[in-house]
Design goal:
Elements (H helix, E strand, L loop, with lengths): L2 H25 L10 H27 L7 H23 L4
Helix pairs in contact: 2-3
Length: 98
């Protein structure tokens, strides 16, 4: 048996096994929804804010270092504008009613 046929045979066998295992997990899933812990949610929100506060100046200084010094302010403002637009669009998309 050459390599291509063996690979096709084992790939289809692997996909069939993965499908069966995935279906078994869906059938035996726990019907109760997990209750999120308030402390975990609060920590995720705080860490998200900290990451956003660190990423914006980091990107601005990184991209600002790639241009001439006379264009530094322009790059800083472009990064800040991009961040504002992406934050607002994410907020608007995620908070609209279904």
């Amino acid at each position: 048996m050459n390599g291509v046929n063996a690979m096709k045979k084992y790939t289809s066998t692997f996909l069939l096994a993965a499908l069966c295992l995935g279906y078994a997990n869906l059938v035996h899933a726990d019907p109760t929804a997990p209750v999120p812990d308030k402390g975990d949610v609060a920590w995720m929100m705080v860490s998200t804010i900290l990451v956003i506060l660190m990423v914006v100046p980091g990107l601005a200084l990184f991209y600002g270092g790639l241009v001439r010094s006379q264009n530094m302010l322009s790059v800083l403002m472009q990064v800040m504008a991009k961040h504002c637009i992406s934050t607002l669009s994410t907020f608007l998309v995620r908070t609209r009613p279904p």
